[in-house]
Structure formats: C-alpha cells, structure tokens
C-alpha cells in the first residue's frame, strides 16, 4: 500500500493483490466475461513474468491501459489488483466476505501451522471462533486497561536486561552493543504469556529460550522465501532442492513447539 505525502483520501493510491480462487473459476465463459480486464498470460505461468522486479511500478503502468481494477493469472492463482481508493472502498464494503481468505504459502502448511493461525487460517467457523476469543479475551478495552501493569512489567524487565547485557559487554572490553531484537522478541512473548497464562514464558538466560528464538527466526526466514510451488503446485512432485520449504520449516517448527 502506498500513500502520497499529502492530500485527501481520494488521492490515496492503493496497490495490493487479493486472492480470489485457486484453480478454475466456476461458470465457464460467462464468469470470465465478468472478470476485470487484464493482460493476456502465457500458458501455465500466466502473468508471472509481467510482475518484473518492481511489481508496484508495473501495476501502475498496467493501470493506464486496463484501469484501476486489474485481473492477473499468477500460475494457478487468480489474482485481482486494486489500485484506487474508490475501488478498494467498494471491495471492502460490498465484497469483503468473498475475499476474506488469503493465499497460504506452501511452507506454512508444515505441521498444519496455518490451521491454527488467525493470519493464515481459512475463513470459516474455526477462524471465527479464534477471532472471537481474541477480541473478547485479549483485545477489548477492559482487558487492555487491566493488563497495563503486566505490559509495563515486561517492558521494565526488558530494559533491565538490555542494561545488564550492555554493562557485561563493556566489562569484558566490548563496545556495549546488544542484540536488541532478541530482547524485544522475549518481551513480546512474555506479554502474551502473562495475558494468557499469568507468567513469563521465556527467560533471557535460558538455553531453551535461545533455541526458541533461533527456531522462530528460521521459521520466519523460510516462510518469507520465494517458492515457485506457491503458484505452480504441480512443481512439488519433482522438486527436491532446498527451496522445497516444508522440510526445513517443519524441523524448525518442531523445535518451536
């Protein structure tokens, strides 16, 4: 999503892709006539090569020819690109439910990780239940106000840990630099632990906490790697290289469990 530096809402320019359906769209030729305009694609790969190295710039160029609502075929994935505030408002106001699901990267299907996730879970009864629990137990104003002291405690602990590690580094002749992201990670998990279990989950000095931190780093790294199987699922039959991400993802996910 990109915004101009100044101006009202109608000057906001939105460019993002929305998953429509995986596989052929029902309705045959009649449904294809209702699709937004878009460039013709190649067999099998569709419009994947139209994205280039700077997709948002290519989308803007295609907008001048096809309009603010663009239809692309990325491998086997039907994709709609919205590039105006008016079209985005209509999409979310009138067609929110059909576009509620999102594409789940193949790597995240290891250990059925996606089925228990609000971010990647399929819209349905289970997802709605998770959303309801989070909204009622974690995100309502009363719960947020009641947990202010818990959050402050976790932040105070993090600051103390950073100061202690920095002092220890200087005492050993170091520069006093610390790995701040590690302390933020521990603090965030301890906030969740105090909200749900009324106790800290991780300790900065425990080996288990360090292994968990390293495993989660790898999980996020592998989940973000490009994988051609996300757009061409049949490639999973032949691929045996390291980019077949389920195997390393599964090993690191097992550690994080």
UniProtKB/TrEMBL annotation:
UniProt region (Disordered), positions on chain: 21-42
One GO MF term: metal ion binding
Family, as annotated: Belongs to the cytochrome P450 family.
InterPro entries xrefs: Cyt_P450 (IPR001128), Cyt_P450_sf (IPR036396)
Protein name: Cytochrome P450
Lineage: Eukaryota, Viridiplantae, Streptophyta, Embryophyta, Tracheophyta
Gene3D superfamilies per the UniProt record, alphabetical: Cytochrome P450
Transmembrane parts of this sequence: none
rRNA-binding listed as a keyword: no
Pfam families per the UniProt record, alphabetical: p450 (PF00067)
PANTHER family xrefs: CYTOCHROME P450, CYTOCHROME P450, FAMILY 76, SUBFAMILY C, POLYPEPTIDE 5-RELATED
Keywords of this entry: Iron, Metal-binding
């Amino acid at each position: 999503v990109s915004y101009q530096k100044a101006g009202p809402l109608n000057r906001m320019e939105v460019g993002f892709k929305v998953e429509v359906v995986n596989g052929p769209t029902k309705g045959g030729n009649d449904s294809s006539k209702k699709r937004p305009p878009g460039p013709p694609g190649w067999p099998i790969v569709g419009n994947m090569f139209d994205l280039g190295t700077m997709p948002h710039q290519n989308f803007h160029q295609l907008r001048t020819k096809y309009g603010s609502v663009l239809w692309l075929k990325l491998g086997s994935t039907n994709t709609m690109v919205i590039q105006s505030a008016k079209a985005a408002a209509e999409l979310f106001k009138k067609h929110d439910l059909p576009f509620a699901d999102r594409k789940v990267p193949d790597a995240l299907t290891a250990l059925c990780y996606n089925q228990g996730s609000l971010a990647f879970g399929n819209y349905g009864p289970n997802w709605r239940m998770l959303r309801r629990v989070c909204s009622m137990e974690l995100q309502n104003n009363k719960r947020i106000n009641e947990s202010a002291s818990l959050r402050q405690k976790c932040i105070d602990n993090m600051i103390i840990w950073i100061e202690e590690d920095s002092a220890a580094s200087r005492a050993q002749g170091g520069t006093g630099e610390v790995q701040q992201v590690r302390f933020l990670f521990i603090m965030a998990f301890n906030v969740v632990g105090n909200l749900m279990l009324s106790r800290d989950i991780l300790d900065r000095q425990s080996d288990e906490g360090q292994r968990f931190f390293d495993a989660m780093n790898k999980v996020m790294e592998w989940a973000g790697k490009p994988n051609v199987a996300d757009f061409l699922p049949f490639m999973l039959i032949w691929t045996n290289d390291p980019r077949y991400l389920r195997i390393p993802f599964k090993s690191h996910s097992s550690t994080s469990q």
